[in-house]
Amino acid sequence: MIENEELQSKTIKFLRFPLIIGIVFIHTNLAEVNIGGQLWAAKGQFPIHDIFRYIVSEELARIAVPLFYFMSGFLFFIHTDFSFSVYKKKLERRVHTLLIPYLLWNTVVVTLFFLAQTFLSSMTSGVNKLIVEYTVSDWIGIFWDKGDYMPISYQFWFIRDLMVVDLFSPLVYLFVRHLKVIGVTFLAISWYLGLCCPITGFSSDAFFFFSFGAWFAVHQHNFVSVFQPLRLPFTLLYILIVTIATILWYNQVEAHFLIHNLGIVIGLITIVAWTAFGIQEGEIRCNDLLSGSSFFIYAYHIMPLALIMKIWTTLFKSPTELTMILGYLSIPFLIVGLGIGIYVLAQKSFPRFTRLMTGGR
Q1: H-helix or E-strand containing 20?
Q2: For 168-282, where are the alpha helices, taking DSSP H only?
Q3: Residue 260 contacts residue 59 (beta carbons within 8 Å)
Q4: 10-residue block means of pLDDT along the chain (361 residues)?
Q5: What pTM value is reported for the model?
Q6: Are 115 and 123 in contact (CB under 8 A)?
Q7: Phi-psi bin for 83: left (phi > 0), alpha (psi -120 to 50), beta?
Q8: In whole angstroms, what is the distance from residue 123 CA to residue 316 CA?
Q9: How far apart are the first and last CA of the chain?
Q10: Three-class SS of residue 34?
């Protein structure tokens, strides 16, 4: 039998890779491919694809980011007596694991955008401002908020908001230590109702789920032990919630996000519980390569994903339900497989640079 603490650690390690696959699926949307100002598929033209994509990308995969915040909050505070010196050391480490990769990857993406606009202009949407016309404020914005609350490498909004909550970790520590369940519940209600801070970088998602994970670490509770008894009832509950949320979304009920948000919390607990169960039973095992490549795949996937989706649309100029669904299912795995291959080659050829780009992971 695996000890609970070891099982908790293996569960975190195992989940990194499938959660990254979920993030790639979130960003795969053939219905929004724009070439020269024209959408490849009209909105609502392929309802079977739309429903299928909603369930996978907008319900199942949407658990990924909250769960990453949860694990980050837990790991930030686990096995430590929080103090100023500990805080300082953790921030120094996050300069290497978060800030440097954040700056480097956004620089890479703006460079690729410039090359695409210069040499592959026919493949671009035509709606983005040309890099050569950027002002000083535009250059600042690409590294924080280019006008849509996203940096230019838009998946890095997660890292940006994680860095913000890391900066405020002393307040998180005091909050969860002294207010305990009441404090986390307050943050949960704020997130659940969609109450957001208007300042870019201060997301309710980050503060709630980071604090949720921190609560387990600060109060020395093993989250695997807490979640596992809920595995079967929460599985049934999650299926029901996803079904209701899908029906409400399809019928354009505005308040469907309340059911959706409930599903994220229930789904998070369910996924952790089933993963821990699978590891404990020997059905699944952690793979060092897959876990190690996760950050690289997360960081690199946006530009090649956009390119391959546009290539797919040129191969099938007249989309059908079949080509939409086949593309949606195959492209993410192509991107992930390609990412693993590039990561392995980069590790062998440029090990120091690869460590720099992945934060030493």
Answers
A1: helix 4-26
A2: 169-178, 180-192, 204-218, 223-227, 231-250, 256-280
A3: yes
A4: 82 97 96 73 85 96 97 93 91 95 92 77 62 81 87 93 96 93 92 86 94 95 95 97 96 92 97 96 92 95 91 86 95 97 94 91 74
A5: 0.92
A6: no
A7: beta
A8: 15
A9: 29
A10: strand
Contact indicator for 101, 357 with CB cutoff of 8 Å: yes
Contacts of 348 (CB under 8 A, 6+ apart): none
The DSSP 8-state label assigned to residue 127 in this structure reads -
Report the largest interatomic distance among the alpha carbons of the chain, rounded to a whole angstrom.
Answer: 61
Distance CA 299, CA 18 (A): 15
Dihedral angle, C-alpha 184, 19, 10, 273, nearest 10 °? 60
- Closest residue by Cα to residue 248 from 258, 262, 233, 236: 258
Q: How far apart are CA 98 and CA 165, in angstroms?
A: 12
DSSP output for 289-355 = HHHHHHHHHHHHSHHHHHHHHHHHHHH-SS--HHHHHHHHHHHHHHHHHHHHHHHHHHHHH-HHHHH
